[in-house]
Design goal:
Layout: H1 14-19, H2 34-37, E1 44-45, E2 71-80, E3 94-103, E4 112-114, H3 118-128, E5 145-150, E6 161-167, H4 178-186, E7 190-195, E8 202-204, E9 210-212, H5 222-251, H6 267-270, E10 271-281, H7 283-294, E11 300-304, H8 312-315, E12 321-325, H9 335-343, E13 348-353, H10 364-371, H11 380-384, H12 389-408, H13 419-422, E14 426-428
Parallel strand pairs: 2-5, 6-7, 6-10, 10-11, 11-12, 12-13
Antiparallel strand pairs: 1-9, 2-3, 3-7, 4-5, 8-9, 13-14
Helix pairs in contact: 4-12, 5-7
Length: 430
């Protein structure tokens, strides 16, 4: 088996890698104990009163997007009745929660969307934060706000907009990509983020129902882990194809939300599905690649430091593809990268973000540095490295936007000619 971030390290924390929301392979070396504190998984948690954060809980914020447009968002509850749930087969259908992010009209009295919905935030604090070596109650997770207004009308002057689907790392909540997703929306994209139910630690559905991750095998050997990630990958690819169908229905004026939630004004007309891309971190990056291979609706895809799983390792892709690496992965130590890259025949570019770690491609890159001056977080350096967090985020935002601008908007860029000239932290791998 090639060197990869899913292989067990010196401490037995593989279960935590697969269940903790960071979805970062380097968590394996931290030795956290999510499973020791988590309740039985794979079943719904009854809605309970959401506890108020302690007066001593740390408040953190997300950096504002830099694009021209203010942004809006809406959560949708999607139900696929054509298949049993692939991770909990006793469920006769597959349920997903997704968020749609988009350029919004300025003004209007629309509430700011939270980073995590209330019940999900409470569950994260109790069951996920300890896996990141953050004590329960130490951070006001419920108080983290995005920069998007819930349900705000789509900005009409933005015109027809390309669409990008986002998938997080294994076990990672869709919220962990917010800083990158908001940037794309502010730059004139509609972005759809998807939570893989029963894989992610917690997914909150309407009325406060929380579904938790399905139980993992007791023995997580490298072979078992690889098989589990293959299973999760297959489930996610099917999820994404279903979401694409629902987006197409939305673009044609139908409301795919199970509760028929009122949609933001102008959203259906703004979607240009002839220009659709896929973006993912870790396992989500592999899913983006497989989706680009399988689905003609995907025109370009990007993988943020993800191992490849499934048939795409051998087939590669013929479409534009961006690969961004941390210090964890390279073509020298990752056989799936070598195979995929050799087989891929379209436009392709690979960049390395120096001194970054796997979790640098998540919102933890900007959250942890706000906490470490005030509390000990043993996982921090293992997850986000020592790169300057502001420079890291700026480089990621610029490269991802330039990639999709080039291939979905036909907007030329010189960033890939000399990325180090833009950001000294970035070097070209291939």
């Amino acid at each position: 088996m090639p060197t990869d971030p899913t292989a067990p390290r010196s401490r037995p924390a593989r279960r935590e890698f697969l269940r903790c929301a960071a979805a970062a392979a380097v968590l394996a070396s931290v030795g956290t104990a999510c499973s020791a504190t988590s309740p039985p998984t794979g079943s719904a948690a009854k809605p309970t009163a959401t506890p108020s954060p302690s007066s001593t809980s740390r408040v953190v914020s997300l950096p504002a997007p830099t694009g021209h447009w203010p942004i809006g968002t809406i959560d949708l509850h999607l139900v696929d009745r054509t298949r049993h749930d692939p991770l909990v087969p006793s469920k006769p259908f597959r349920e997903l929660m997704v968020s749609v992010w988009y350029p919004a009209e300025r003004g209007g009295k629309f509430p700011i969307a939270p980073w995590l919905t209330p019940a999900a935030a409470a569950d994260w604090d109790k069951h996920s934060a300890p896996g990141l070596t953050i004590k329960t109650g130490a951070v006001d997770w419920q108080g983290i706000q995005t920069h998007a207004r819930t349900g705000a009308p789509v900005a009409r002057p933005a015109g027809k907009l390309p669409v990008v689907l986002f998938s997080s790392g294994d076990g990672g909540d869709r919220a962990l990509g917010t800083t990158l997703v908001e940037e794309l929306a502010s730059q004139g994209y509609i972005v759809v983020t998807v939570d893989p139910t029963y894989e992610v630690d917690q997914v909150e559905f309407p009325s406060g129902r929380v579904e938790r991750a399905a139980p993992l095998p007791k023995k997580l050997t490298p072979k078992v882990i690889a098989a589990l990630l293959e299973k999760h990958s297959r489930a996610r690819v099917a999820d994404m194809k279903f979401v694409l169908r629902q987006i197409d229905a939305l673009a044609h004026g139908r409301n795919p939300d199970a509760e028929r939630k009122t949609l933001p004004a102008g959203l259906p007309a703004a979607m240009d599905l002839s220009r659709t891309g896929a973006l993912g971190q870790s396992l989500g990056g592999s899913v983006a690649a497989q989706l680009a291979h399988d689905d003609p609706r995907i025109s370009a895809a990007a993988n943020l430091d993800g191992e490849f799983f499934g048939p795409v390792i051998r087939t590669g892709v013929t479409k534009p593809f961006l690969l961004m690496a941390s210090d964890v992965n390279s073509f020298d130590n990752n056989a799936s990268w070598k195979s995929f890259w050799t087989a891929s025949t379209g436009w392709k570019h690979a960049l390395h973000l120096r001194k970054a770690q796997h979790g640098s491609y998540t919102d933890l890159q900007v959250i942890f540095p706000q906490l470490t001056p005030h509390m000990k977080i043993p996982a921090a350096s293992e997850l986000i490295g020592t790169i300057n967090p502001h420079r890291s985020l700026a480089a990621q935002r610029s490269a991802i936007a330039a990639f999709f601008d080039l291939h979905l908007k036909n907007r030329p860029t010189t960033l890939f000619d000399n990325p180090s000239g833009w950001y000294p932290e970035v070097e070209v791998l291939r």
